[in-house]
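anyone else get weird line breaks when pasting these?? whatever heres mine. first is seq + tokens for prot A
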Amino acid sequence: SDVCSSDLGVYGSIADELASQYALGYSSKNLKRDGAYRRVIVQLVDQPGARTRTRAGYMSPRPERVAALQ
């Protein structure tokens, strides 16, 4: 018989969520490489019932880390 994701309990919920993920790219206008924390806010427009799961921000690279990558 056919098994739908709702019949799989928690695994079905995970499968449903993984099937509706999006990747978002971001480039900061702040070019400082000072290791400071950068806050990021993601907002949905005109998407009733939709929700986001995001990180609150990130640490900018430190100068020595940037030099090591070059």
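and prot B, same format (seq, then tokens)
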Amino acid sequence: KILTDTKYRFQTNRWYNFEVRVSKTSFEYFFDNKLVLSHKKLNISKGKIGLRVWNVGSVQFDDVKVITVP
């Protein structure tokens, strides 16, 4: 199930920092420290992550990490 998505225009040949912040009440999504999307959290205690792109020739993801923050 996809919780949310948004359109974001990327420049070619450029690296981006992507971060998702999860709290008890919300998800917040950032590109280069700029908030691009947020939504209220559903009752989710575990799951998987996914990165999805479309209408592009080639995409690379590097150093993807999922960590627990106290």
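btw re prot B: The mean pLDDT is 78. The CA atoms of residues 30 and 36 lie 6 Å apart.
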